[in-house]
Every structure is written in structure tokens, then in C-alpha cells.
Design goal:
It contains twelve helices and 19 strands. The protein is of the alpha/beta class and about 375 residues long. The protein has two domains: about 220 residues, Alanine racemase (TIM Barrel); about 120 residues, Lyase, Ornithine Decarboxylase, Chain A, domain 1 (Beta Barrel), CATH 2.40.37. The chain has an eight-stranded parallel sheet with strand order 8-7-6-5-4-3-2-9. The protein has a five-stranded antiparallel sheet with strand order 11-14-17-16-15, with no helix packed on it. Helix 4 links the parallel strand 3 and strand 4.
Length: about 375
């Protein structure tokens, strides 16, 4: 056996259907497949989402969208953070950019030039996340630059909520929703068009049904995490990271384990070495007793410093053999719980799993 990331597509089916059950019949669904589909396998996930009936896909960068097009994905693909240096490639592959500033809009309009008409674009507004987006008072400028004769067709306007999973930020979230509604009305009146509107992410789908508008976007929910225990049990993590025991050592009191002798045995112990490390996405922060793996249904703490290609775990009291299977995370030992041991989140752990780890698609 080797270290492998299993991708369970039936779990994706379940998550998609659950999230779809939370939105209206006429509300469109956008599946976010950026970052290798949150560390899993973007082509397989995109293909399955197309089969399930997703209306749109979204990626962060142009190269991610190009890879999907080359794999035969035909769904509309929104590029959330396009850069001018990739505009030509973006157009060549029929991707749809989010235009988020005057510089980006003007650069894309120039790139499209006379060779395209009615090229689909999406206008991003900043309503408080303060990351990307036009300001509320930019609507008149957008109207002036995307009026009659423009080669661009506005497919949607959208924004991003900052804290939909946080019960302490309900007031702030509602202010964002109200601001987006105001922007939408101003946009419609000023440009005389009514493009799609989309605002919510996974937690927004679950917590703010009044803000579903014309389309919703889901990333982490598709991969099995609801950012809240009340929703987590409705979702199934699609990825299961497994490894194996390469070698077993029995060490005496006072012996050290790993680089810099970070761990010293307080008594006789049995330890196992596994073939994955920080180059595979299990960062050094999980070492020295913070992180763990699961063997025979029991936690085995990571001891010593995490190495580039290996970790060592304490298997004292477990009946293990070299070659035995080890679970790092999966539906029964969730990635978000492992991430919490280092004050991190599921997103960071699952998206950080190295591409050198074999992906195995389970239909």
C-alpha cells in the first residue's frame, strides 16, 4: 500500500443534493472547483457536477479553467481572480472573467477588442470583505464603459459575504446583503439590464436563504464541511487520506525521535514511521503531539518534528504490523477536527494535500 487520497463521488452526490434542497427550484447552482477542487481532483469533480446538474463552475485562476476545458468540461466557468497576463488564454478557452476594478475592466475590454462580441463577463462588487471588487459608487463608471457598443455582455453581478458562518456577525452580514441589494437596484436602473445576482457561499446557503438571489455558490459544502456542527452531520467528506506503516521501532526511555531530537521517550515505546510529511501537506505544526492519525479506530499521536516525507507516530499498545493501513482523515476521522488541533481550518488542510499523492476516484 502507498499513501493515497480517495475521492468518493457518491459523497459528492449526497452533498450536492443536500445543498440543492436548500435553494429554490429556479435558483442556479455554481460549484467552486478551484485549488484542484479543494485538494481533491478537479476534473473528476467538475465532470460529476456537470452530470448532477450544476449550472456553473468557478475557479480562482485562468490556468485552472484551461485545464478543465482541455479535459472536455463544457459548463460555463467563472474565473474569480483573472490577471491581465492571461486574458488571451482565457478568451481562447471561452472562460468568463470576474471584472473587479477599473484597471481589470479596461484591460479585458481592450484584449477582447473587435474579435469578440457579447463576450460574457461578471462584475464583482466589494461589500465589506475588502479583498476584490468595485465600490458601490463605481456603478456610473461601469455603465459609461460598458454601454452601447461594448464587446462585453454582463452575465452577473456578485459579491462575497465575509462571515456567514459566524453567529456573532449576523448584523454585519445583513448590512452586506442590504448593500448588495442597493447596488443591484442601482445597477439595473443605470444600465437598464437585469443580470444574474449571486452573493452567498456554503454557509450563506444554509444560514441566509433571503440572500440566495438568482444563483448560489458552494465550495466547502460540496466537499463535506458545513462550518457548523448542526450542518456537518448532513454532509459527507468526500476525501479520505490513507497511508501505511513503513517501519516499526521499539525505543527505550530517553531515546529521541526525529530531527533536532524534538521528542524524547519518557518510557519504553513502540513507534511507527509513515510515508508522508510536510511536502505532502501535513505541516510541521502537526508534530510533537498536536496532530494524530487513526489506526484500528484509535488515535496515534504524531511525535517529533514532521519530516519532509515522513511522520512518526506512537503506536504503543496497538497491535500493528508493518504495511498496515493508517487513516489520516476521512468521514470517520474528519479533517476539520485534525485541523483544529493546530488552530487551523479544514480548508487549509484539505487544499494543501500535495499533488504527488496518488488520487483514487471511487465512483
Amino acid at each position: 500500500m502507498e499513501t493515497v487520497l480517495e475521492i468518493h463521488l457518491k459523497h459528492l452526490d449526497h452533498n450536492f443534493k443536500y445543498l440543492k434542497s436548500k435553494i429554490g427550484e429556479n435558483t442556479r447552482f455554481l460549484g467552486v472547483v478551484k485549488a484542484f477542487a479543494y485538494g481533491s481532483e478537479s476534473v473528476a469533480i467538475a465532470q460529476r457536477l456537470a452530470q448532477l446538474g450544476a449550472d456553473y463552475l468557478a475557479v480562482a485562476y485562468t490556468a485552472e479553467g484551461v485545464a478543465l476545458r482541455k479535459a472536455g468540461i463544457q459548463l460555463p466557468i467563472l474565473v474569480l481572480h483573472p490577471l491581465p497576463s492571461h486574458f488571451g488564454e482565457l478568451i481562447d478557452h471561452g472562460l468568463e472573467p470576474a471584472l473587479y476594478s477599473p484597471r481589470i475592466l479596461e484591460a479585458f475590454k481592450k484584449e477582447v477588442g473587435p474579435r469578440e462580441t457579447h463576450y460574457p463577463v461578471h462584475i464583482k462588487f466589494n461589500t465589506g470583505l475588502n479583498r476584490l471588487g468595485f465600490w458601490e459608487n463605481d456603478v456610473a463608471w461601469i455603465a459609461k464603459n460598458l454601454g452601447l457598443g461594448s464587446p462585453l455582455e454582463i452575465k452577473s453581478i456578485f459579491s462575497h459575504l465575509a462571515a456567514t458562518e459566524d453567529p456573532n456577525e449576523v448584523e454585519f452580514t445583513r448590512r452586506q446583503i442590504a448593500q448588495f441589494q442597493k447596488i443591484s437596484e442601482d445597477f439595473n436602473q443605470t444600465l437598464g439590464i437585469r443580470p444574474m445576482r449571486h452573493l452567498v457561499n456554503t454557509s450563506g446557503i444554509l444560514n441566509y436563504p433571503e440572500a440566495h438571489f438568482d444563483m448560489v455558490r458552494s465550495g466547502i459544502g460540496l466537499y463535506g464541511f458545513g462550518n457548523d456542527p448542526q450542518f456537518d452531520h448532513h454532509l459527507r467528506p468526500i476525501a479520505q487520506l490513507k497511508s501505511c506503516i513503513s517501519q516499526i521501532h521499539r525505543i527505550e526511555p530517553g531515546e529521541s525521535v526525529g530531527y533536532n531530537r524534538a521528542y524524547k521517550a519518557p518510557h519504553y515505546q513502540t513507534i511507527a514511521t509513515l510515508p508522508l510529511g510536510h511536502a505532502d501537506g501535513i505541516g510541521r505544526q502537526y508534530g510533537n503531539g498536536k496532530g494524530y492519525v487513526t489506526i484500528q479506530g484509535k488515535k496515534a499521536p504524531i511525535i517529533g518534528n514532521v519530516c519532509m516525507d515522513m511522520i512518526m507516530v506512537d503506536i504503543s499498545g496497538l497491535e500493528c504490523q508493518e504495511g498496515d493501513e493508517v487513516l489520516v482523515f476521512g468521514p470517520e476521522s474528519r479533517a476539520d477536527r485534525l485541523a483544529e488541533t493546530t488552530q487551523s481550518i479544514s480548508y487549509e488542510l484539505i487544499t494543501g494535500i500535495s499533488q504527488r499523492i496518488t488520487r483514487k476516484i471511487i465512483p
